[in-house]
Amino acid sequence: MPRALSPHYTHQGIVVATPVATIPIAPTIKTFMPNTPNIAYPYVPEGKKFLYVGETHPYIIMAKAFARFQSLDAVMPGAAVVVKDDVVLGIGANGSGYHKKQPCQRVVLGCTSGEGYDLCEGCHPKNHSEAKALATATANKHDTNGADLYLWGHWWCCRSCWDVMLAAGIRDVYLLEHSEMLFNKEHPDNIVGKQFTS
Ligand SMILES: [Zn+2]
Ligand SMILES: [Zn+2]
CMP/dCMP-type deaminase domain spans which residues (predicted)? Predict the structure, then answer.
């Protein structure tokens, strides 16, 4: 009887992030577009930029599906997939159970968007998609150096997540195209609150 794998996630019959072996899941579909220079990200490290893929990209589809079923963040569900050589090394969704029981401390304290994540257990960067995906890769002893990260559900990455990604050797970060509109609470055409219905 094989022992239970943790984390264990099956996507269209394919198991990813197993501790013993990694399984190629999809042919490489490179549909990324060049960075859009006029997006005012709240934070991006010196010399880094975001790349974009369309909604039919397999890793963005995977991230969206994982966010839908695993995220504990009701307002801004998100998930990230860490990929190297077309193999999924780690996957994680954001959120924690904290907000279900207690008010968000960032709201209580009046934090502005993107600030004070470490002040609230429910918002803590350790519960962000990027950090959780990398934690599963690390827990399974995968070498993330040179891997890429695909993030669905957000339009930028906070400083803490960038720090974690850079330390892990993440090469490129891919977002869903038009994320700066779709997942931006400030944008009039966002899909916040209807991420899985539109
Ligand atoms: Zn919070
Ligand atoms: Zn973050």
Answer: 75-175
Ligand with the closest atom to the CA of 117: 1
What's the pTM? 0.82
- How far does the centroid of ligand 2 lie from the alpha carbon of residue 119, in Å? 13
Rounded CA-CA distance 198/185 in Å is: 16
Q: What is the pLDDT of residues 143-165, one digit of tens each?
A: 999 999 999 999 999 999 999 99
- Per-residue pLDDT tens over the stretch 11-69: 554 445 544 344 455 545 555 555 566 789 999 999 999 999 999 999 999 999 999 99
How far away, in angstroms, is 18 Cα from ligand 1 center? 31
Answer for the pair 63, 124: CB distance below 8 angstroms, yes or no. Answer: no
Separation of 111 CA from ligand 1 center, angstroms? 10
How far does the centroid of ligand 2 lie from the alpha carbon of residue 130, in Å? 7
Q: Which CATH class is domain 22-36+43-182?
A: alpha beta
